[in-house]
Write a structure and sequence with these properties.
The chain is globular and about 65 Å long. Helix 3 (109-122) crosses helix 4. The protein folds into two domains: 3-97 and 204-425, Adenylosuccinate Synthetase, Chain A, domain 1 (3-Layer(aba) Sandwich); 105-200, Adenylosuccinate Synthetase, subunit A, domain 2, CATH 1.10.300. The protein has a ten-stranded mixed β-sheet with strand order 9-7-5-2-10-1-11-15-19-20, with helices on both faces. Helix content is 31%, strand content 20%. With 430 residues, the protein is α/β, with parallel strands linked by helices. The structure holds inosinic acid. Inosinic acid binds next to helix 4. Inosinic acid binds at residues 11-13, 38-40, 127-130, 132, 134-135, 224-225, 229, 238, 240-241, 274-275.
């Protein structure tokens, strides 16, 4: 198996970075295919904590090439800082190991401003975005007026497109938001300053993947956010602005679906969500607080406290279906250690009184469901750096077995702590 898609199957923050870092040791190529610097993928190596927002987590492996696909929206300011910070930590990053699609759209300063203003205007109905300009950048992509990284190759055209954009954005800023206009000169200076270092990274990413596939090399597609944040299949409107499900790996990088061998779904042993929107198993109590504190559940991008709750198998079953998940990777099992009992939601009671395991097609209906829980005996602790399934407490094994049963999917990896060493692999993932 050499073409693997890895996606989050909850509301993001499932611990994908750590699993990508592990798989990247074997992969020749790791590709980001959607989202932007709204993501925050954390990898812990010894006493170093590395948070990546845009660059695939594969960059921490010497031999691995990382690609930013056409489906990503890219803020050059963030990318520049991220490259700098990686270099300061001793990792090498250059055009030889980080390639960027000509077709990836640029996040412009006005996208960030519009993101914040649009949220403010929505008031109570705000999405709770990361404020990084992700939504407005995708809006321009689909309005076909966005600037792409490849536009840096023709500065005259770049300036022409930018002028047209600023003209229109200023109308919106002044007439809709009653805000100050932005200066073309300032935006131009900020954006053009990135041209010289960015252009050498440009590559036909789709073709590079094709070549790797032809040579039977291992390619990993790294998803960001999670299924329930998918713009079509998530809890709309409380979602991000890209497709986060496995299908997006193909459209967001330029490969055909027939080349994909496996789809790994990453989920925590419990659930978290940042921002607004329905969350059936949310624990707005001491238990929720305990999970937040012990699990360090604060946003890697914005620092916001994450909402926490029990594992939701109804949500997982839905995610397994829409992604075509072949393998599960369960993270943060250690966070639940020390509890007398742990709960799994196996069904919802819907507003009409019906009880079943259907994830409502109308996301608004999700706000009205009541979770039905199954209680499982907890486990005291997990041995330090546990990397063997046999060494897990029997209650933890039973919990994992129940997840397999409920999702009809095998658990191939279990993460038992933050370090690279804290990992059990039960089935080969490539
Ligand atoms: P946006 O992606 O910044 O537009 O935010 C839309 C929603 O997605 C908000 O609820 C964010 O909190 C959420 N979101 C975006 N990226 C992530 C992520 O990487 N992890 C978790 N939530 C995210």
């Amino acid at each position: 198996m050499s073409n693997v898609i890895l996606v989050g199957i909850q509301w993001g923050d499932e611990g994908k970075g750590k699993i990508v870092d592990y798989l990247a040791e074997e992969a020749s190529l790791v590709v980001r295919f959607q989202g932007g610097n709204n993501a925050g993928h954390t990898v812990i190596i010894g006493d170093q904590k590395i948070v990546l927002h845009l660059i695939p987590s594969g960059i921490l492996r010497k031999e691995t090439i990382c690609a930013i696909g056409n489906g990503v929206v890219l803020d050059p300011n963030v990318l520049q800082k991220e490259i700098q910070s990686l270099k300061e930590k001793g990792f090498s990053v250059g055009p030889e190991n980080l390639i960027i699609s000509h077709h990836a759209h640029l996040i412009m300063p006005y996208h960030r401003a519009l993101d914040v203003m649009s949220e403010k205007r929505k008031g109570e109905l705000k999405v709770g975005t990361t404020g990084r300009g992700i939504g407005p950048a995708y809006v321009d992509k689909y309005d076909r007026c966005g600037l792409r990284v490849g536009d840096y190759l023709n500065l005259d055209l770049f300036r022409e497109k930018l002028k047209a954009n600023i003209e229109f954005k200023n109308l919106v800023l002044q007439k809709v938001y009653d805000a100050e206009p932005i200066s073309y000169k300032e935006v131009e200076a900020e954006m053009i300053a990135h041209r010289d270092w960015l252009v050498p990274h440009l590559k036909d990413v789709s073709y590079v993947i094709y070549e790797a596939q032809q040579a039977k090399k291992k390619v990993l597609f790294e998803g960001a956010q999670g299924t329930s944040l998918d713009v079509d299949h998530g809890t709309y409107p409380y979602v991000t602005s890209s497709n986060t499900i496995a299908g997006a790996a193909c459209t967001g990088s330029g490969v055909g679906p027939t080349t994909i061998d496996k789809v790994i779904g990453v989920c925590k042993a419990y659930t978290t969500r940042v921002g607004s929107g329905p969350f059936p198993t949310e624990l707005d109590n001491e238990m929720g607080e305990m999970i937040r504190t012990k699990g360090g559940e604060f946003g890697a991008t914005t620092g916001r406290p994450r909402r926490t709750g029990w594992l939701d198998a109804v949500c997982l079953q839905y995610a397994v279906r829409v992604n075509g998940i072949t393998d599960l990777a369960i993270t943060k099992l250690d966070v639940l250690s020390g509890l007398d009992e742990v709960q799994i939601c196996t069904q919802y009671v819907h507003s009409n009184g019906k009880k079943n395991n259907k994830f409502p097609a109308d996301a608004r209906a999700l706000s009205n469901v009541k979770p039905v829980y199954e209680s499982h005996p907890g486990w005291k602790s997990i041995p330090e750096h546990c990397d063997k399934y046999e060494d897990l407490p029997k209650e933890a094994k039973a919990f994992l077995a129940r997840i397999e049963e409920l999702t009809n999917t095998k658990v191939s990896l279990v993460s038992t702590g933050p370090d690279r060493k804290d990992q059990i692999v039960t089935h080969n993932l490539f």
